[in-house]
Each structure stands twice: as C-alpha cells, then as structure tokens.
C-alpha cells in the first residue's frame, strides 16, 4: 500500500522509489507505446520522452515491486488482490480465476516488460510465473487500452516491469515460511495407495529466491530465480446448498421458491503447487545511440489439486526475446525485436513415472517501432506487430492432439501534442488485420487540462476490441456425454467504446484522484448453456450489448511524519440482460491501508503495515432447471454471496542495509466463507483457509560481503 | 567471492525440484470391468461370491444375474455398480449380509472376525439411487411422453439423473461424488462386510475410483480396492 502511486499517465516510470511523496517523485514517460525498454537504469514503458505528471492524460496505478515485498505479500496474486480495488484473483477448484470490475481474465491483458504471454485458460495465465521479487514495478491501466496494447486489453492492462540493476554487483537472497493452510494427511506411508498424493497436497508453504545483477561498462546482466511451494486445502460449507428461484426472474412462478439440497455440500478444493521461475536478461550498449537486449525465461510448475484421480498437472514455459534500438539525435529512433513464448501442459501420473501432453501453445511476435520528437511539442510514434498464436490441445477433435492457429498484423500511429502548459492532447489509431476477422481500426483521444498547480481534469475516449480466442473459436469437447463445450468459428470480435472523465487534487502530502467511466460493449463473447441434441451445450456466442459503468477513487495522505494512510474504492454497474444479472462481480469494492514507518535509530528501521481489502455483496442469477407439477422449466436461481473483508498485518525490521526480517498474519481476523455458492457459482468466494502467520528473511549479500 | 559461489550453489540445490516415485507397489485388487451407467445399463451390477471367488456379470451387464434375480439368490455376497455397492441383505437379497463402517484407514488393524462380531451390520435398503444411463433415461422419457430437451439427462447444476434402486447405505458412503466436473473421492474408510450366509466376514477399503494400471486420462470406474477375509 505504501508504494501505491497513482501516476496520471498511461505509462509511467520511477527514477526514485519514494512512495510517501506520491506524484512528485515520479518521472513520467509519454503515452501510447506498447513495448517496454530499459534504458540507463530507468524503467520506461512507452517511448523515451519524459513528461511531467501534469500533462499526462490517462490514469495509471503504479505499484512498486520492492514496496509490495516490504508490505509482506508472498506473491503477485496476493499483492494485486489487496492493492487493486475491484480485482479478484485466486485459485478455486481447478485453476486461476481473475475478475476485475465486472470483466473476466479475457479482458485483462498481463504483460511482462510489455510482452504478451501464452498458456492461458479462459484468459487466466499461470500467475505463479510472475516472480514478485523480480518486479521493479507494476503499471495498472484500467479501461479500454486496445489502441495501445491491442486485443484483450479492453478491461485493463497489467504490465510488470522487471528489475535491472544499476549497481556494479548486486546479490539478494531470501526465504519465506508460511503456516500451512490445512494439514490433510499426517505421516504418509509408502504403503499408502495415495502416498504421492498425500505428500504433494501437503507441501510446505515455502519460498526462496535469488536475484543477481551485474553492471560492468557496456554490459548489464540481471538474473532472477524463485522457488515456491504451497499446500492444497479445502473450503467447507456446513449447511446444505439452497437455491432461491424468484418470481421476478421466473415467469412461471407466482412466488419465490427456495429449494434446499438433500445432500451436504462437498468440500471445494483449492490447489497447491510447487514451481520454479527463472529469468535472465542481458543488455549491451556498444556505442551511444545503440542499445541491444536479449532475454529468456523458464518456468516449471507442478499443480496438486485435491482430486484423487491419480494424476497431477505439470506445466512449463520458455520464452525468449531480443531487440535493438538505434537513436539518431532527437530526430528519430528505430526499435525492432522479436519475442516468442512456448507453453506446455502435461498430466502426470502419481504412481508411475509417466506423463501425457494435453496442451501446447506458442506465440511469436516480431515488432517494429519508429518514433520521433523532431517536431516541437509533438511526440510521434508508429509501430507494427505481427502476432502468431498456435494452440495444440486434445479438445478440438475427438480427444486427439490437434493444432489451431491465428495470425494478426497490427499497426498503430499516435501523436502526443502539448499545445500549452495547461493542455496535453493524445491522439492515436490502431489497425488490426487477420484472415479470420478482416480489417478493424480503433481510434483513441485523450486530453488533460491543468486548472492550477493542484487540480487537473482529464477526459478519455478509446475504442477497443477483443478477438475471439482459439478456444472460443474451435473448442469441441464432449465431457463423457454429459455436456459439450463448443467453439464457434463464426464469432465476431467484440468491440467496446470506453469513455472516462477524471479529476485529481494533489497538495502537500495529500492526494486524491477520481474517475468516472463507461465501457460499452458490443457483440460481447460469452459462453451460454443451451439445450439441444438432448443435452446441455456450453456454446460461445456474440451477445447483445453490455454496459459497464463505474467510478474509481484513490486517496493517499501522509500525516504526523511517520504515518501514511491510503484508501481506494471502486463502484461498478453492469447492465442486466432481460432483467437477469449474470455478471458475478460485486457493485462495490475497496482497499485501505495504514502504515507506520520509523528509521530514527541507527542501523535499524521498523515498518508496520495494516492492509484491508473489502469485496461487497454479490447477487447474480444462474441458469438452471426447475420442475413444477411434473413440468421441467428453464429457470434461474439467485445466488447471494455476502460481503467480506480480508486484512493483513506485516511487521518489517531492517537491520543495517543488508538484512530484513518480516513477520505477519494474513487474513488477520480469520475470515472463512460460510457459503461456497450453489451449483456452478463456486468461483466467487475468497479462497482463504483463515488466519495464517508467516516469517520472511531477506539478505542483501553484496552489502553483507562489502561490510 | 567464494562464499557467494558456494551460497549460490546451495540456493540452486534448494531450488531444484524433482518428482520422486517411491511409493510401494499396489498389492490390492482392481474391478474386472467398469460398471454402471457408462455401459448403457443403469442397474449394471457386478456380483461377487466372496466365499468361492466366483464373479457374476464379469464381462457384460446382466449376463449371469439379471436385475431382480439377485433378490432370490444366495450365491453372491457383494456387488458393485458405479460407485454404489450392495450386500446380500435387506432390499437387495435374501441373505444375512450387511456392512459396518470401521472408520478411517487402519486397514491392517482389522485381522479377525472376532473384532467385528459385536458390531451392528446395516442391511441394504432402497434409499440408494444409481445413475441413470442415457439409454434408460431416454426410454423413460418416451414411456412417460416427456420432452427430451426439457428433461436433459445431465444438468450442470444437479448432475446426472438418478434412479431409485437398492443398495447398502453404509457402503454408499465409501465413495463420495461431487461436481461437475465429476470427482469421485473414496472415503478411505475400512468397512466390514458380512456374507450372505452370515458366517463369513470381510474387510473392504476402496482406495481409488481409478484402475492403478490404467492410462492417464482414463475416465475411471474400474476402481482399486483392498478386500480380505477376516478369519
């Protein structure tokens, strides 16, 4: 929370990490550029033209990586959950699930240093791939950003900028131990039929990491490695499921009907895992004006669910990239590069050394960017991406591994114009061409007006789009004759028009930012249940219009020298469809934090964080069938999930410049969901086992050896 | 510098991860075939005479003992249909069978019938439902003139249609079903089963819905279990 910055640009960078002084310490970069470059120790998202904060038109939330670690977060998912209002991200049942302001993971684009990743399940990546200790900062841009970032960014863009050392030698290592969520088996024996299963689901909550940097002359190297394991656990519901069918939603009823299940609700499993992520980046600047970069990552993960089916999931990912940038004075610069990502998923047997590949995807993305600051007051930029996506799965044709692919070519052009000290305008257009969907173009216009030194106003319009995914187009999977999941080759890309108005007040140690927005979707792609051929079919289709509108607020206040308070809230309205609400988001959510820091004592520092995340009550309708007087009707039951608050407490002690010791409690007030939701609504409850303690130690080895 | 190298090496060793297959080989039993609705027959019961080792309906449903015939036969003790079980007792047969739950694990603890003689064995009753096969459900719809699309065999919120049958309510908890997606979770409890003649006692523990030797992605149903006589 301490590190929570609302920079008011689409892209921003920090040259200093002083989070108590919100916007003033932030050096900002200009808008509308996709790729991320690391230049001379300063992380830059977008082009290299520095801009003061006052003239930046789009609101961006910036979370500092070091600050997130200092606040006691164990991984990226937890950090985003606690720091971003309206964002829900967790593992429930079978895999990750993300929701943000009424939009699911298919509308939230995750990037690492501006690069896309592959290997998603319904838009959800293995978020474990992101090593929190390798992140310099995170930029979160809510709203439609397709003009800048292309498909999948119609809801938000979350761009993780990784570390690059500026020290001759840097070496950090750390270890974290957390209390287990649930001990399922005590003393597993090799004779047990489920011996491997019993061991795997009860892995310790352990994390260790290493970060090594080298900066010598023209060469810079950055290496990050992280190992982590966590245990699987169950969520429990004491009472049997109840479903309420309202007369409002079901025309054949003259009063509300509540049906209680005769059977108890089985526990809902939350997966544990064990993973290693590695990244290596090399930078070389042979002479002034030319910068070269090469990078590679590796990720291996075993996922252990609570299902006793003799298999667990194994996944691995490799990515590599290279890019070069040449700048000629301030006339222009040219950047070209190539990025590739390969993802594999297997089912691995728990009793035999065998595995079977079930998923394989890759993306290859060459890109080119030309930018110029030659014209006074203008930053011009144009770029081109060729995006090639291929997915091989056993769920396209008769359970055989079969490949499907998509290719898109995207171009964009933008101009940022500063006509005066008070105004900044940003104009852009992006085009997309593919054989599948034809030609599309999306404009964007944004403006910022500085009323005075403390108050600024913003307005933004952008058109966005999301191309149907390969799964949405080609999936064809019969689940044991029970139901079919069917893709639709005739899907059209969904489009959205995003409008926002914002205001910001910033004086001394007080900062307030508010935005109201509307996100109007056309042809939104959703999966719907339809009954034909004597069975349920989950079919992807273009729905009619959907409107999301809301407001986001953030306040930050530093007071009494050692105290920092911040709060944020998000309210969202999602339009109903034929009087029914299928969207599972809560209309309101908030985060808050209070931090005390004290560095008065020589070689000793203390920092205490209390963070809270509130998710409001959720009410939505779920498609079902209800038999009345022997007649089966298509029906909808209303699911209500109560509001909840998760609080974390973290105490950090600094000893000298080389040792940090953490201790804390996650879910301080031991909140446990009482209801898991009825039927297929299980993804909307918080996946927490209750209050759990942790300890963590971090050593700066370079400082220690220097000492 | 050496210290850094050593420390780095140590950390990398800690980071290394491998999957170690060190479990003992399974020495239990596996059902000879999958039973239940997936064979197209709702009441597809595989019968065992535990006293002689004889198996009925070994290769196909209703091959040796048709549904209903079990009610008058004393030559079977235990039967399986999907995740449901029968003993030769109560509503399932004329025998003196029945079952009792001996609690979680501890399979090796139970060695003698004297340990279970004093326990109350529960006979079969009609509270147990088996899963309708698609064919039987469609037949039911035709007979009752019901609409196929309004009465789908499977419902994402409620699962597959169920047919009232006869089975042992204690052994009915040996495997719990949840989902969709369907998850079959054995209780890992040990159960005592009494034979049809009331003279023999057996201990039973179902350890997996799956055949331990089957291929990855097998749909299950041919489950793995331990079964031994209590002398």
Order of helices and strands of chain B: HEEEEEEEHEEEEEEEE
Greatest interface and its participating residue counts: A-B, 60 and 55 residues
Shape of chain B: globular
Q: CA-to-CA gap between the ends of chain B?
A: 69 Å
Radius of gyration of chain B: 22 Å
Number of E-type strands of chain A: 45
Short description:
The complex is a heterodimer of chains A (707) and B (231). Chain A has 707 residues and is mainly beta. In chain A, 5% of the residues lie in helices and 59% in strands.
Describe the protein in words.
The complex is a heterodimer of chains A (707) and B (231). Chain A is mainly beta. Chain A has one domain: TonB-dependent receptor, beta-barrel domain (Maltoporin, Chain A, Beta Barrel), CATH 2.40.170. Chain A has a 22-stranded antiparallel barrel. In chain A, strand 39 (588-598) and strand 40 form a beta hairpin. Chain A is globular, with a radius of gyration of 25 Å. Chain B is mainly beta. Chain B has 2 helices and 15 strands. The longest helix of chain B is centred in the N-terminal third of the chain and has 14 residues, at 2-15. The model of chain B has no long low-confidence stretch (mean pLDDT 89). Chain B has one domain (27-230). At the A-B interface, strand 15, strand 21, strand 24, strand 25 and strand 35 of A face helix 1, strand 8 and strand 12 of B.
């Amino acid at each position: 929370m301490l590190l929570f910055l609302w920079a008011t640009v689409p892209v921003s960078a920090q040259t200093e990490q002083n989070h108590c002084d919100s916007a003033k310490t932030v050096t900002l970069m200009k808008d509308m550029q996709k790729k991320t470059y690391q230049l001379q120790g300063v992380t830059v998202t977008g082009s290299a033209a520095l801009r003061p904060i006052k003239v930046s038109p789009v609101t961006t939330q910036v979370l500092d990586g070091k600050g997130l670690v200092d606040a006691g977060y164990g991984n990226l998912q937890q950090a985003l959950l606690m720091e971003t209002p309206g964002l829900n991200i967790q593992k429930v049942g079978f895999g990750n699930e993300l929701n943000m302001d009424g939009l699911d993971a298919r509308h939230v684009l995750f990037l690492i240093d501006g690069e896309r990743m592959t290997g998603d399940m319904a838009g959800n990546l293995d978020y474990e791939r992101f090593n929190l200790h390798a992140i310099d900062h995170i930029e979160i841009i809510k709203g439609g950003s397709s003009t800048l970032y292309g498909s999948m960014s119609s809801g938000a863009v979350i761009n993780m900028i990784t570390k690059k050392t500026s020290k001759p030698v840097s070496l950090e290592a750390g270890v974290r131990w957390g209390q287990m969520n649930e001990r399922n088996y005590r003393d597993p024996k090799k004779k047990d039929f489920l011996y491997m299963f019993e061991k795997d689901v009860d892995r310790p909550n352990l994390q260790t990491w290493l970060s090594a940097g080298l900066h010598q002359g023209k060469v810079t190297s950055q290496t990050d490695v992280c190992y982590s394991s966590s245990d699987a656990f169950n969520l429990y519901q004491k009472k049997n499921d109840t479903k309420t069918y309202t007369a409002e939603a079901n025309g054949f009823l003259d009063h509300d009907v509540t049906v209680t299940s005769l059977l108890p609700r089985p526990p809902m499993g939350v997966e544990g895992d064990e993973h290693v992520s590695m990244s290596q980046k090399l930078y070389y600047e042979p002479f002034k004006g030319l910068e070269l970069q090469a990078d590679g990552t590796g990720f291996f993960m075993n996922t252990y669910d609570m299902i006793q089916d003799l298999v667990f999931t194994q996944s691995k990912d490799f990515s590599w990239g290279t890019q070069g940038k040449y700048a000629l004075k301030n006339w222009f610069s040219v950047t070209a590069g190539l990025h590739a990502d390969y993802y594999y998923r297997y089912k691995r047997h728990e009793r035999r050394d065998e595995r079977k590949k079930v998923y394989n995807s890759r993306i290859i993305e060459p890109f080119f960017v030309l930018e110029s600051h030659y014209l006074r007051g203008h930053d011009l930029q144009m770029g081109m991406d060729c995006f090639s996506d291929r997915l091989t799965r056993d769920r396209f044709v008769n359970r055989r591994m079969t490949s499907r692919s998509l290719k898109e070519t995207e171009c964009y052009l933008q101009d940022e114009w500063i006509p005066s000290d008070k105004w900044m305008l940003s104009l852009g257009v992006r085009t997309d061409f593919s054989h599948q969907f034809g030609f599309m173009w999306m404009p964007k216009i944004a403006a910022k007006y500085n009323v005075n030194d403390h108050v600024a106003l913003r307005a933004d319009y952008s058109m966005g789009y999301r191309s149907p995914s390969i799964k949405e187009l080609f999936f064809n999977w019969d689940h044991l004759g029970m139901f079919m999941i069917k893709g639709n080759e005739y899907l059209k890309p969904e489009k959205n028009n995003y409008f926002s108005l914002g205001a910001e007040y910033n004086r001394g140690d007080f900062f307030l930012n508010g935005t109201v927005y509307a996100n109007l979707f056309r042809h939104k792609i959703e999966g719907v249940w339809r009954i034909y051929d004597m069975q349920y079919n989950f079919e992807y289709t273009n729905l009619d219009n959907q409107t999301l509108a809301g407001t986001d607020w953030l306040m930050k206040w530093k007071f009494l020298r050692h105290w920092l308070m911040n709060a944020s809230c998000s309210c969202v309205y999602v339009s109903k469809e034929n009087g029914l609400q299928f969207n599972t988001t809560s209309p309101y959510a908030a985060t808050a934090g209070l931090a005390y820091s004290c560095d008065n004592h020589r070689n000793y520092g203390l920092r205490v964080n209390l963070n809270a995340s509130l998710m409001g009550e959720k009410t939505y309708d779920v498609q079902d069938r209800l038999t009345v007087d022997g007649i089966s009707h298509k029906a909808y039951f209303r699911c209500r999930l109560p509001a909840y608050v998760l609080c974390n407490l973290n105490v950090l002690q600094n000893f000298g410049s080389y040792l940090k010791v953490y201790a804390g409690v996650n879910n301080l007030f031991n909140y446990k969901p009482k209801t898991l939701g009825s039927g297929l609504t299980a993804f909307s409850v918080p996946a927490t086992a209750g209050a759990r303690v942790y300890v963590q130690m971090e050593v700066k080895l370079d400082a220690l050896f220097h000492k | 510098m050496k210290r850094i190298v050593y420390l780095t090496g140590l950390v990398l060793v800690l980071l290394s991860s491998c999957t170690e297959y060190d479990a003992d080989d399974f020495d239990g039993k596996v059902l000879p075939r999958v039973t239940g609705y997936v064979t197209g027959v709702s009441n597809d019961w595989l019968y065992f005479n535990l006293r002689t080792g004889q198996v009925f309906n070994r290769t196909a449903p209703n091959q040796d003992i048709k549904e209903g015939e079990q009610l008058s036969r004393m030559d079977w003790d235990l039967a399986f249909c999907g995740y449901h079980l029968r003993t030769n007792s109560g509503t399932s047969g004329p025998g003196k069978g029945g079952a009792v739950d001996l609690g979680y694990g501890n399979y090796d603890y139970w060695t003698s019938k004297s340990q279970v003689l004093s326990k109350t064995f529960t006979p079969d009753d009609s509270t147990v439902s088996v899963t309708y096969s698609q064919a039987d459900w469609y037949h039911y719809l035709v007979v009752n003139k019901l609409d196929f699309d309004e009465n789908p065999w499977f419902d994402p919120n409620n699962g597959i249609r169920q047919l009232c049958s006869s089975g042992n309510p204690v052994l009915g908890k040996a495997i719990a079903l949840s989902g969709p997606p369907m998850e079959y979770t054995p209780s890992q409890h040990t159960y005592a089963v009494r034979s049809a003649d009331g003279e023999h006692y057996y201990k039973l523990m179902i350890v997996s819905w799956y055949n331990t030797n089957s291929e990855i992605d097998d749909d299950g149903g041919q489950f793995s279990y331990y079964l031994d006589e209590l002398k």
